[in-house]
Design brief:
The chain has 8 helices and 5 strands. It is α+β, with helices and mostly antiparallel strands and 246 residues long. The protein has one domain. It is globular.
């Protein structure tokens, strides 16, 4: 009986220790996650015929540039909304009257989420063109297919902008690149990561963002940023994952 009482008296202490250990594990994971993301991005960019120093600067530029949005233009729109009036009971009710409210949105482009990945993709294109007609044709086919798929699955979301499932673009880029480069042998293996990266970047940028620009301008949001989520935006994730998996 005494042993049972001692066991029950230890339960609160064991619960506190378990909660403390869980909190420490979560905090450690949150602290290590940026390092893990950095290492994954660095490993992916090193497969793009970049030296270690340039790949490191690119990753740091993506992280730092994710906080920078370059404004392009301001968009004003008017929204018709019903008026809320206070009834006899003191509760708000929607009336049959409407009023026109003016809202302003800022269209911008993100440095880390769009410009730097786009520059890295453009850096790969001349190298791929010099690899032969077969590589060039595969690059064009994979890029066009990824742009079409991203355009089909992207949807405007009020308050956010254009969204799409993050795994679609790298999955399409990697699968098509693998299938089409197999007949090229060693040449296809060397160029597999650059092709997948270019297709992974241009797919969300052109297919999801630019081709849905008219829908984006109609979406109510304070800031409409192309590549706006920075490091974790679809453009960066698609390119990095495609290069890493190819």
């Amino acid at each position: 009986m005494n042993q049972i009482r001692e066991y029950h008296s230890m339960l609160p202490m064991l619960g506190c220790l378990t909660l403390l250990a869980t909190m420490l594990a979560v905090m450690m994971f949150l602290c290590l996650m940026p390092v893990m993301v950095y290492e994954v991005m660095l490993a992916a960019l090193k497969r793009l015929h970049l030296n270690a120093e340039f790949a490191t600067l690119s990753v740091l530029g993506i992280f730092a540039g994710s906080f920078i949005n370059l404004p392009i233009r301001r968009i004003e729109r008017s929204v018709v909304q019903p008026q809320l009036v206070v009834g006899p009971t003191g509760l708000g009710v929607w009336s049959h009257r409407f009023r026109r409210e003016r809202h302003e949105s800022l269209l911008a482009v993100n440095v880390g989420g769009c410009l730097i990945p786009l520059a890295l993709a453009a850096w790969q294109v001349p190298y791929l063109f010099r690899s032969g007609m077969g590589t060039t044709l595969i690059l064009l086919l994979v890029t066009a297919a990824n742009i079409l798929v991203c355009n089909r699955v992207a949807r405007p979301v009020p308050g956010i902008g254009i969204v799409m499932p993050g795994f679609i673009s790298p999955l399409v880029a990697v699968l098509l690149t693998w299938l089409l480069t197999l007949p090229l042998g060693e040449v296809g293996e060397v160029n597999r990561a650059p092709i997948a990266f270019v297709a992974g970047v241009t797919g969300p940028l052109l297919g999801a963002d630019l081709l849905h620009l008219r829908d984006m301008l109609k979406t109510p949001a304070a800031v409409l940023s192309i590549g706006g989520a920075g490091t974790f935006d679809g453009i960066v994730l698609s390119g990095v994952l495609a290069a890493l998996l190819a």
